[in-house]
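Appendix B, example 12.
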Amino acid sequence: MDFAKRSDFSKDAEIVAINVPSILMKTFIKSKINEISEDDPILAMALKKIKKIKLMTVSGAAQSSLYEKFNTYLAKNDFEELMSLYNEGTRISINTQMKGDRVKKVMLGILDDEDQVFVDIKSDLDINALNLLIEEYEARKVEHQAIIEQ
């Protein structure tokens, strides 16, 4: 991750970093996308548009300033906070970087007492198409709820 340097971590910190290029992702999930597309078109569309995923987990570095550096990185690179959640001591931040009406990057930061997880997703999602699919998904959800209540 661009905001993390080795010097930011204590010596006892455990770090796992994974970089998954799109060619590898598409190889593993291509058949699943076809299965998913009927049941969940939003997820299938989103998976098709993902170009690259980076994941970093840090354990045992609770006193580091990494989360603050993450927030500084987001501000410098014009990310907008889409959502921030707090649950039982865990903070989750979901941020997007837009270019016109396209979502180019999604960055997630997850922080609790012991661990920090950062996910960097490069994509090319059209926000208008995404909104239409979300509306369709919500309509199906309401329909499904009405069937259950009968």
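The first strand starts at residue 14 and ends at 21. Strands lie at 14-21, 50-59, 80-87, 90-99, 102-111, 115-126.
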